[in-house]
Fold this sequence. Notes:
The chain is an alpha/beta fold.
Amino acid sequence: QCRSSDRKMMTSVVRILKNSGDSTGATSPASPDLLRVFVKGAGERVLAQCSSVLVADQVIPLTPERKAEVEKTVVDAMAAEALRTICLAYRDIDPEREPDWRERCAAPHQMFMKGETQLTCLGIAGIEDPVRDEVPGAVAQCQRAGIKVRMVTGDNIITAKAIAKRCEIFHEESGGLAMLGPDFTRAIGGVVCQTCQTEVCACATDAKTAEEQNKPLRVDVVRDLDAFDKIWTRLEVLARSQPSDKYALVTALKQKGRVVAVTGDGTNDAPALKKADVGFAMGLSGKEVAKQAADIVMLDDNFTCIVKAVKWGRNVYDNIRRFLQFQLTVNVVAVALTVVCTAVQREAPLSAVQMLWVNLIMDSFASLALATESPTDDLLNRKPQGRDSYLISRSMLTSIVAASIYQLTVMIGLIFFGERFLPETKWTFLSDEDRRNLGFCEFSDCDFGMYTGTRMLSGRRYKLFSTEDDYKLEWLREVGPSRHGTFVFNTFVFMQIFNTINARDVDDTQIEKSTSLSAAILGMVRNPLGLGIWVLIVLGQVLMTECGGRLLGCHQEGLNREQWMLSLLLGLGGLLWGRLPRVFPSLYKLAPEFGSREETLEETHSLALELRGRTPERMNERLGLASYTFAKKYAKKARLMTLSRLRTRRLEGGRDGRGRGVSSFAGIRNRGASRGDARVAPRQNKACSPPLSDAREEACIEMQ
C-alpha cells in the first residue's frame, strides 16, 4: 500500500494467483499471473488519471470530453452539496509484458506513480461529514468578537466553499476569497529564513543550538509580504492545502502582528500548532504529536471549545486589569497621603496595624473579589486586545486619576480640617473630673465649664505648620486614640470598599454601556464569591472600628451613628464620583493616548551585542543588503567592483526607541514596524556590481 497526502490518493497492489480469481495479500509471488492496482482518492485527482470507465460490466474508453462532463455533473455537483467525493479505480499489470516490475517494486513510490495512470474508473462516491448544529453559531460568536475565522482544508475547493458557507465562514457576496493552498504559498513566495532568505539554510532552529554552535537563530518569514497584504484581508478558505500551506499562513499572519490560533489533529499539523500563539488539538481524533505541540486540547473535538477559551482568556485578562486598577488607586492615595502628612504633621495618617488591614484588603481580599469574576457573553461583543497593547488602558488611567483625586481631597480635608465640621458627642467613659485633671475636652468648640460642644477634637499630633502639640501624648496614653483618627481610618477603608465596584469597568469599548450604577452593582452581585468577600470586609471593618480599641489604634467607643452615616456617605460619594467619566465619556479624552509597545514578546535582544552596535536589525540589514563595509571588505577578493565604482546613497537616518541609529528608506522600511526595522531584501550574489539598475542602486546603501 502507498498513501500520499500530497496527491490525495491511496494505492493498493494485490496479486491474483495463477488459475484463480481470488486475491490475497500484497506479497508478490515468484511468477504471478497478474498484479492489480486499486486506487482511491480525491474525485478530480483520480478521475484525471482514468482512461476508461466500467459501465455494465463493460470497459468503455473515457474521452476528455466525457471526463470533463463527469467531473462537472458528478464531482462538482456533489462538491456543491458539501460532499467529499472519492473516486475508485483500478488497473491490471501483466508482469510478462513488464518484466522489470520486480526492480520497480524496490521503489514502490515510483511504481505506484506509474501504476496510477491509465486507470479504469469504477465509480465516484460522495461522503457527507455533517456540520454540527452549534458550529455556525460558534463561528458567528467568534466573528462578533473580532476573530477572523479561516478554513484551511484538504478538500476540493468547491466542497470547501460549500462547507464554509454552511459554517458562516465564507462570504462570497462580500468579496471573500477562496484559494488553493499551493497557489497561496506560491503567491507569497513560501516560507524562508529571515536572515538567509532561503527555504533551507544552516541557521540554528532553536536558541540552545544557536548559542552552542554560535549560529544565528532561524526566524521564519514569508518571502513576499507585499503579495500577502493583497490577499490576507479577504482570504477565508484555503482548499487542497498541505500542512506547509497552513504553516505559511500562520507565519505570514504572525509577521503582520496578528494573534493566531490554529486547530489541528494530525502529525503534520504540529509545526503550525507550535508556531501559532495558541494551538488547539483534537482530544478524540487528534494524534499524540499534535496534542504535545498544542497549548489546549479540546476533549470533545467541538468548535465551541474555542469560544469558551476566548471567553475565559478575555475574562482572565479583564480580571487582572480590574485588580490592577483597584490596587493602583489604593497605592497612589496611600503613598501620596503618607508623604503629605509626614511632611506637614510629621506623622502618618494611619497606624501600622491599620495599614496592615488596608494591605490585607488591597492584596488578598481584592484579588479574590475582582479576580474571580465569571465570564459572560458580553466579552464576545468587543474586539480583541492586540499583542502589543498595554494593560492599563485610557479609561483605566482616567478612572484611577479620578478616584485618586476624590479620595485625596476627602482625606486631606478630613485630616487637616475635620475638627471644623465633623460632628461629635460626649464620651461616656470619661468623667468631668478626669477631663479637668487631664485638661482634656473631646470637642474642638468646647465649653470648658460644661465640657460640651458639637464638633470633633483634632486628632493630629501637632498643629499645622507648628511644633506645638495638638492631640497630646498624655491624652493618647490616658484617654486613648482620638475619634478623629478613627473616623479618618474608617472613611478611607469605606472609600476603597465602594471603589471595588468602580474597578470592575476596565474595557474602553464597553464603557458607555456601564453608565448606570445599577449595572455596576448587578455585575458585582453576579459574583457570589466577590459579594461574600465584600460583605466580609464590611463586617471586619465594623468590628475593628467598634471593638478594636487601643490594640488597633481605634477609639474606645468607636463611632456614633452620625459619624457612621457620614463615613458611609463619603465612601458612597467615591462610587458616584467614579461614575462621572462613564456618564461623560468625553472626560476620557483628557487622558493621554496609549500607543503600542516598541517591543513584542517574541523579540529577543542581546545587551552585549547592542552595546557594540550589533543589533538584530543591523545584522539583518548587513546580511540582506549590500553595504559600504561589505563592498570594502570583499571587493578585491570577489573582483566584483572597486571602491571608486561603488555608488552609494546615504539615506536619511532616524533614531528608534532605544536611541540607536537606523536607516530610513521608503523602499525597504517595514511598514507598521514600531522600531524602524528594515525589510530584508534577498541577498545578491554580485551585490552592486556595475552596471547597476535602479532597484539594485536602491538596495546598495551605506549603513549608519
